[in-house]
Design brief:
Structural class: alpha/beta
CATH superfamily: Vaccinia Virus protein VP39
Helix content: 40-55%
Largest sheet: 7 strands, mixed
CATH class: Alpha Beta
Strand order of the largest sheet: 3-2-1-4-5-7-6
Length: 267
């Protein structure tokens, strides 16, 4: 049996390592697309779950939603708050775990999560919580990496060198129609899904490797757990993956990454 509390604590430490904002800021367009797909509009109560540094929260606040950005990493929320202040947006931030949201039933018109809640280890509890806090007829908008896209392959490389805890479903389950039917459709939500792409664009593959190694918590902690030979092997596999997927000219990096955009309506 999986000890979800222990796994959650470990993951929380991983995501608090480095500075995810340096990674996530490249995907601002995903949050903008998601709030448009959900049709967030003025006056709606909106909860962004596992919001990180606030890309999607800010997109919803720009549409005059009453937004709470929630995450279990306080430092990321502090960055989100600074970004909201810089834009003059009245967005709130609150510490919360996607698996145990501290809000009453039917509290929000819209719930959003962008490459966030999909990483919570207890997927069944997370799915229940995302729907529980929604009002009947409310919309859940998600952006989830697919297992066959670039990030799905990146997960596979990471798992080869730093195996995940036994018994967990992969995060990319959220990026499949079958997984979403099991997690959300079985709980009565109607689903609309659309496959999209976003780009990872960097000056070089070496730059990308060092950026993630220094600032992306799961990668940084993965490297730190390996000896020198293990780190060299992990780095070599990452560089090979970048080369296989790269479509940029010369030494530059332009890698398209597939994700599933999901709009679930609570019945």
């Amino acid at each position: 049996m999986v000890d979800f509390d222990a796994v959650t604590a470990r993951q929380q430490q991983q995501w608090a390592t480095g500075d995810f904002h340096r990674i996530g800021v490249a995907q601002v367009v995903v949050g903008e697309r998601l709030v448009r797909a959900v049709r967030v509009h003025a006056g709606q109560r909106v909860l962004d779950v596992a919001a990180g540094a606030g890309n999607t929260s800010l997109a919803a606040a720009r549409r005059f939603g009453e937004v709470i950005a929630s995450d279990y990493v306080p430092d990321l929320l502090a960055t989100a708050a600074r970004r909201a202040e810089a834009e003059g947006l009245p967005m709130k931030t609150e510490v919360a775990d996607a698996q145990n949201l501290p809000y009453p039933d039917a509290s929000f018109d819209v719930v959003l999560t962008t490459f966030g809640a999909m990483f919570a280890p207890d997927q069944e509890k997370t799915a229940s919580e995302l729907l529980r806090v929604l009002k009947p007829g409310g919309k859940l908008g998600m952006a989830n990496w697919t297992p066959t896209g670039f990030i799905g392959r990146l997960f596979a490389v990471a798992a080869k060198h730093v195996p995940p805890p036994a018994g967990l479903n992969p995060p990319s389950r959220w990026g499949t129609g079958e997984g979403l039917q099991e997690l959300l459709g079985s709980r009565g939500a109607s689903l609309e899904m659309k496959e999209r792409e976003t780009d990872f664009v960097y000056p070089s593959a070496a730059y990308m490797l060092e950026l993630y190694r220094n600032w992306f918590g799961p990668t940084a902690t993965g490297f730190a757990s390996l000896d020198e030979a293990g780190q060299e092997a992990y780095a070599a596999d990452l560089m090979a993956l970048y080369e296989d997927w790269n479509q940029g000219p010369g030494d530059t990096v332009l890698i398209p990454a597939t994700y599933l955009e999901v709009v679930a309506t609570k019945v």
